[in-house]
Automatic annotation (TrEMBL):
It comes from the Bacteria. Residues 29-99 form the HTH gntR-type domain. The lineage of its organism: Bacteria, Bacillati, Actinomycetota, Actinomycetes, Mycobacteriales. Keywords: DNA-binding, Transcription, Transcription regulation. This is FCD domain-containing protein. InterPro entries: GntR_C, TF_FadR/GntR_C, Tscrpt_reg_HTH_GntR, WH-like_DNA-bd_sf, WH_DNA-bd_sf. It comes from Nocardia implantans. Pfam families: FCD, GntR. SUPFAM superfamilies: GntR ligand-binding domain-like (SSF48008), Winged helix' DNA-binding domain (SSF46785). The keyword Transcription applies.
Amino acid sequence: MPERSPRKQGVHAAPSKVFESRAGAFAQRTRAEQLAAALDERIRSGGLAPGEPIGTLESLRAETGFAYSTVSEAVRLLRDRGVLEIRPGRNGGLFVADIGPVVRMRRTLLDVTDEPSAIADAIELRDHLEVLIDVAAARHRTARDVAELEERLGALEIAPTWDDFVHANWALHERIAAICPNEMARAVYVGTLGHLNTTSPRIEDRDADSYRRQRYQIHVDLVAAIASGDEPAVREVVTRHNDTTV
């Protein structure tokens, strides 16, 4: 990551500082996900109100040193999560989104404490939404979507630790969800992923290597079914996916 000179505190300076202070925590995420997380935290911790400006793609690119494509992807992630609003035109830019009912629901899921019952509820909700999200992805995927899903699969395959594998898994599912045109389903689903992403399932009592290979293969099959647009195959893989004893 290129070096950045110290900047004056202000609306546009904070993302870089937040990113630098939390780089270790997000080290296993893609750079776009790191930046999205830093911007989301900046909005939350700063108490910014709906409609307040965050900057522009160009100003964020200049501050962070990231490529335009990375900044653009981070902004897309936050737009899909209902955090940012993109306004075109002369006075346009990036603004804090109005917190409607869908965003409130998503943030409620993200703010739930890590009690076992809350985690179980999030898993149950995610499992029920999985087939809707994945079938929609099979219907609406583009060549670019498929290419990016395959990239996420690559990250899943080479993840060095189980924790890294779990985070790469959630990143893959979030990218699948981005294809789904159902905004409410997508927002709630991503909300459950965000909550589950704060937990780290343990598999000490299982054959970790074998279990990880099985879970990886299920995701390979899922991406292949989505890429081919084969809805029956998607439903079959989702059934296997939701059975975590497989």
